[in-house]
């Protein structure tokens, strides 16, 4: 009898906690929410977060406070978010480098990019642009591929360092086009631009905000963008996928919570984020950052994460890419 009463009391307590938790989720948020950005202030992810935070605060009815926690390529801030209480008051705005690329490059990551987070919504894509010197004989992506095939091992590409999206974009291009092109790592694409302009470097897959101005001022030639379809961010520049079907390389941005975040909170934040991402003012601000507003469901975001991780794992493994 005592055991039965004990079980009844336990079930009653669990029911109370469940009802209380549901009520808390329905009233969410009742206090400010911190949005962790695992990168320094002034960078693309930080500017994205501050573009979203004001509008998200309005939609959610509570302040979103951006908190920069940079370090170890985004790992420190992401780990902090992973270990936060899953009450919805700590969210993370992170990118492909922390959840698709980094985990496949660094076996000592302090978090599991899949198991330790709750995906809420993809919020943006930042494509890259394929740049060549004006002296290059290639005027199109196809011509550049043909040129490289006729000169195996004689052409090179610049990157912003080992394991970066710049290198991975080039290696994905090489893999799909079956090319032998030499890698020259720099400490940032800004340092590679002068050598690209002079012709010492043959190609660079740069981010749109930093690469496109050099095309507009006539210093470099753009051959293609890394999106599957034409993008308004680079009018008149065709997708590389027109020549290499399926080729795509974007830096994605996404909202996460810690694992165990309730479906009600996920739905609340996801709905607000999708509304914000349809705001013309937000779309315009993001475009000026070289970012396309995306949006979508948690399920779509989860599927995208799996696809991106598998793609980069394959390239990193086959090409023997390391951080060294």
Structure overview:
The chain has 324 residues and is α/β, with parallel strands linked by helices. It is 45% helix and 19% strand. The protein has 11 helices and 10 strands. It has helices at 2-27, 44-60, 75-82, 96-105, 141-150, 165-177, 189-198, 208-216, 263-276, 280-288, 298-318; strands at residues 33-37, 64-68, 90-95, 117-133, 156-159, 182-185, 203-207, 220-225, 250-258, 292-293. Strands 1, 2, 3, 4, 5, 6, 7, 8, 9 and 10 form a 10-stranded mixed beta sheet that branches. Strand 1, helix 2 (44-60) and strand 2 (64-68) form a beta-alpha-beta unit. Helix 2 crosses helix 9 and helix 4 (96-105) runs parallel beside helix 11. The longest helix is centred in the first third of the chain and has 26 residues, at 2-27. The chain is globular, with a radius of gyration of 22 Å.
């Amino acid at each position: 009898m005592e055991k039965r009463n004990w079980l009844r009391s336990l079930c009653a307590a669990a029911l109370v906690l469940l009802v209380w938790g549901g009520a808390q989720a329905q009233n969410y948020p009742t206090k400010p929410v911190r949005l962790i950005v695992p990168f320094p202030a002034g960078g693309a992810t930080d500017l994205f977060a501050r573009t979203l935070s004001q509008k998200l605060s309005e939609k959610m009815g509570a302040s979103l406070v951006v908190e920069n926690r940079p370090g170890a390529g985004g790992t420190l801030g992401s780990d902090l978010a992973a270990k936060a209480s899953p009450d919805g008051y700590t969210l993370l705005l992170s990118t492909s480098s922390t959840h698709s690329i980094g985990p496949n490059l660094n076996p000592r990551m302090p978090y599991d990019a899949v198991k330790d987070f709750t995906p809420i919504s993809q919020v943006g894509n930042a494509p890259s642009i394929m740049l060549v010197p004006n002296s290059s004989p290639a005027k199109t992506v196809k011509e550049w591929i043909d040129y490289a095939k006729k000169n195996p091992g004689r052409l090179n590409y610049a990157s912003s360092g080992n394991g970066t999206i710049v290198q991975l974009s080039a290696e994905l291009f090489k893999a799909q086009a079956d090319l032998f092109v030499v890698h020259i790592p720099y400490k940032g694409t800004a340092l590679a631009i002068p050598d690209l302009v002079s012709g010492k470097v043959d190609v660079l897959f740069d981010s749109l905000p930093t690469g496109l101005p050099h095309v507009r001022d006539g210093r470099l030639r753009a051959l293609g963008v890394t999106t599957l379809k034409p993008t308004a961010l680079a009018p008149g520049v065709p997708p590389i996928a027109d020549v290499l079907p399926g080729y795509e390389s974007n830096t994605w941005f996404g909202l996460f919570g810690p694992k165990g975040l309730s479906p009600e909170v996920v739905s609340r934040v996801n709905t607000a984020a999708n509304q914000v991402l349809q705001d013309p003012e937000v779309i315009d601000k993001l475009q000026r950052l070289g970012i396309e507003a995306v949006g979508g469901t948690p399920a779509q975001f989860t599927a995208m994460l799996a696809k991106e991780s598998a793609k980069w794992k394959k390239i990193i493994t086959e090409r023997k890419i390391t951080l060294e």
